[in-house]
Every structure is written in structure tokens, then in C-alpha cells.
Amino acid sequence: MNVFKFFCLIVLLGCQFSAHAERIKDISMVEGVRSNQLVGYGLVVGLPGTGEQSKFTQQSFKGMLSNFGITLPANLSPKIKNVAAVAVHAELPAFRKPGQTIDITVSSIGSAGSLRGGTLIQTFLKGVDGNVYAIAQGSLIVGGLGAEGLDGSKVVINTPTVGRIPNGATVERAVKSPFMQSDYITFNLNRPDFTTAKRLESTINDLVGPNSAQAIDAASIRVIAPRDASQRVSYLSTLENLEFTPADNAAKIIVNSRTGTIVIGKNVKLQPAAITHGGLTVTITEQQNVSQPNALSEGETAVTNQSIIDVNQDDSRAFVFNPGVSLDDLVRAINEVGAAPGDLMAILEALKEAGAINGQLVVI
Q: Which residues form the signal peptide (predicted)?
């Protein structure tokens, strides 16, 4: 079984399953419950000669020493090869409290060759408002490796200029959450859909009572919630585990022209159409012939190139689609023709141009 037939089989098997129930927590997020991005600038020290000597690194190094009461002459440029300037970033999850830790990522922003073996010195991580929310420090874990020879040859495995520090930052300030500042809880759907929003609204109202939930638009469902913190947590715990059946996705065909990936939604239908598909294959090969002179002649051995061109016209086949043909019939018909993914892209684009596809054709 070739790759394309295997792809068709997987699609056909997937179409046999109808929509199933999902938990509210799996397809939506609670408004206001979100992570926040933190970023900082710092120095990594202790590198085995893989650091850098840029001006901003030297300036940062002098600033670090001045914090410890050491002042270098203004005209002195320290020769440092074991220090690198880095950007540090992290995600501060919702409800993370002071004293708890978060993971951080450290990336070189200069010409350092590698951060392997380095240690991040105390770095302040700030939010978008400019306040410090965490302080990072620790030894880096670097998955990459780089090596360079005296002749300039170089070998790099993965990325040696980026590292991680698990639990490398300590939270110093909590982010205020609007979770308790309203009489409502709002669920925002990960994939906005009017039908899904209406079904979620009905599911909550069936449990809590009429008019407890209200679909604001295709993405948001607002639910009345108690003000008491303990009651609100228990209330949300009950709601987010409710199961209901979301609406089917819109009929779409996704085509990735770079990788040859084609995904066809199960709701795609075809209008009456007739398709013929054929291909012309041209193969060009180069062959070298050696010409030997006669034994008594004074000629020289010569090598000549000969081009062989072979043209092969594939058999063309035609198939007809009746009104309302489903994905199953489409895949089976194309599989019988034996079209490769590239040919299938051309067939789908032609069908869309002819107005024979009930659905969106998205090329990425």
C-alpha cells in the first residue's frame, strides 16, 4: 500500500466517526484566567571560552561589578571570553503566587558561540507594565553542541546558544486576576461557532436553570456566578466538566503546497462534475560512451556524452460525480485513479474554480 492510499484509508476511517461529546474545559477558556509573558536581560558567566567581547557585554559586565563595589577605569575594556549577554523569557501562569517557581528560557543575543556550562546571574523579569514579577538565576541546561577547528571548519548540533533552567525563576509579585471581580464567568470558545455557543448555553441552563447562561456572540458565553470565592471555585469546577456535543466544523479542504499535505473535512460535498486526469512523464538520462581508437592508429581515447529522452503518456481516466457526493466517494474515486498528492491538489483547485465544491479550499 503506497503512502497516498494509506492517507485515503485514514481519511475514510476518520469519517466513520460522528461528533462526540466534549468537556467545556477542553474547548474553551475562562476569561481572565491566562498566563503573562515576562522578559529580562542578563549575563551568563562561567563559559569555557565561548563567550563574547561586544561593547554592550563589556558595559553590562562593568555594571555588574559596580553593584558589588568594584569600579573599573572608564578607559579599560575588559577582555572577557567567559561571559555572554542573554535575553531571558518565561510564562507566568495564572494564579501563580510569590515564592513559587517557573521555568525560564535563556537565549544569547550577541556573538557567543555556546551557552553550555554557563550560569545565569540574578536577572529581573518584567511584565508589559514594567514591574518586576520574578527573579531568575541558575545553571543552564543546553541541548545543543558546537565545535570549531583551526581551519575554520565548524560542526553545530541543535542550538547551543539557547538553554533552559527548570524552576529557574522565583515569583516575587502576583498578577491581579479579574476572576473574582464580576458577577459573571465568561467562557471563550477556542474555535468560535454560533451553533457551538448555543449548545453550550443550553447545556449550562439545563443544569443550573433558565437564563443562567447567555451566548454573547460566536465565541463567548456569559454565566451568572456566585461572589463567594469558595462557592465560585466549586461552581466553575462543576461547569467546566459538563459534556456536550459541539457543532461540526465548516466544510474545508486544507492544502499545504510546500509539504504536499491535504486534509479534507468530512462535510465537504461536491456538485455534479466530470474529471479526467492524465500525466505526461518526461525522463532525461545522461550516458557516457568511451571511444577507443584502433590499435595501429595514432588516435586518442575520447569520452562522449549521449542524452536519452523517454516520454511516457499515462492513461487518462475520467469519473463523474453526482449531486451531493460525500468525502468517501471523492477519496475512493481519486484513489482508483491513482493520483499523487500533487495531482490531487490540481484536481481540487480545478473543482473549486468550476464551483463544484461545497466548502472552502484553503491553500497554506
A: 1-21
**Burial class for 113, CB neighbours closer than 10 Å (0-12, 13-18, 19+):** buried
CB-based contacts of 339: which residues, under 8 Å, 6+ apart?
4, 277, 347
pLDDT at 17: 41
Rounded CA separation 297/313 (Å): 47
How far is the CA of 176 from the CAs of 75, 230, 278, in angstroms?
46, 18, 63
Cβ of 125: how many Cβ atoms within 10 Å?
26
CA distances from 269 to 247, 255, 324, 356, 357 (A): 17, 17, 5, 8, 6
Radius of gyration of the chain from its Cα atoms, rounded to whole angstroms: 32
Per residue in 184-203, pLDDT (tens digit) is 999 999 999 999 999 999 99
DSSP 8-state secondary structure symbol assigned to residue 311: E
Residues linked to residue 136 through DSSP beta bridges, in sequence order:
123, 169
Q: How far apart are CA 42 and CA 50, in angstroms?
A: 16
Cα 290 to chain centroid distance, Å, stands at 55
Strands 154-157 and 162-171, sheet pairing:
unpaired
Contact 286, 307 (CB under 8 A): yes
Average pLDDT, the chain: 79
Q: Which residues contact 72 (CB under 8 A, 6 or more apart)?
A: 62, 65, 78
pLDDT means per 10 residues, the chain with 364 residues, are: 40 46 92 92 89 78 76 73 91 94 93 89 93 95 66 65 94 88 91 93 93 94 91 92 89 80 77 63 55 66 60 54 62 64 74 77 81
Query: At residue 341, what is the residue type?
Result: P
CB atoms within 10 A of CB 276: 10
Report how far residue 144's alpha carbon sits from residue 121's, in angstroms, rounded to the nearest whole number.
21
CA distance 241 to 25: 6
Q: Which residues contact 181 (CB under 8 A, 6 or more apart)?
A: none
Instruction: Reduce the DSSP state of residue 299 to 3 states and report it.
Output: coil
- Choose among 117, 109, 2: nearest CA to 49: 117
